[in-house]
Amino acid sequence: MLEKKATISGEFARFFVVGVGATIVHIGVYLLLNECFGITEARPLLLTATYATGYIVSFVLNYIVTLKWTFKTDGTLAKGIGFAFSHSVNAGMHLLLLNVFSYLKVGQLLADLTRWLLPWAAELLPIITEPETLLPLPVYLIVVPMNFLMVRYFLKRPPATH
Question: For 38-159, where are the alpha helices, taking DSSP H only?
Fold first, then answer.
């Protein structure tokens, strides 16, 4: 049992590192597209589109690294389908929560809170006080643990025997 716990904790640590990288790619693409096209929280449909685009780019990179490094397994059609399914559910949760939090003005609340708690940081790096920049944060806090469990299930389960 101790070996299984060590394996899971090592996998989660690697999952976390890969997830941070995928998150940086995802948010980087999202922010870059928002900046290039002048998209703000006032245009939620376009925010959803840039968020989804970032997600797709990070998904492709995430799959390759997750297979080879996180779970140290070979890709199969079944694993690919399972990974795609878990990330489809994950993407749905991301987009649903992004839009719910946008509707509830959570990005604006976080921006106001950042200005109040970290005025020096807000002055130094104004992008951290824009609602659309902060909006994804609570989404990730909810979705990441759920995604780990789904991805692990699909990539680590034994192959079906007939």
Answer: 44-65, 77-103, 106-117, 119-124, 131-134, 136-156
- pLDDT, tens digit (0-9, with 9 covering 90-100), for 70-95: 888 887 888 888 888 888 888 899 89
Q: Is the dihedral of CA 40, 46, 52, 57 positive or negative?
A: negative
Which of 162, 161, 149 has its CA nearest to residue 11? 149
The answer to whether position 63 is within a domain reads yes
Q: Is the pLDDT of residue 1 over 70?
A: no
Q: How far apart are the first and last CA of the chain?
A: 28
- Which pTM was predicted? 0.69
128 is a domain residue: yes
Within 10 Å of residue 21's Cβ, how many Cβ atoms? 14
Residues 6+ apart with CB under 8 A from 148: 12, 15, 19
Specify if 162 maps to a domain.
no
Number of folded domains that form the chain: 1
How far is 158 from 92, CA to CA, in rounded Å? 27
| Domain span at 15 | 2-156
pLDDT digits (tens, 9 = 90+) for 11-62: 878 888 998 999 999 999 999 999 999 998 888 899 999 999 999 999 889 9
Q: Is residue 161 part of a domain?
A: no
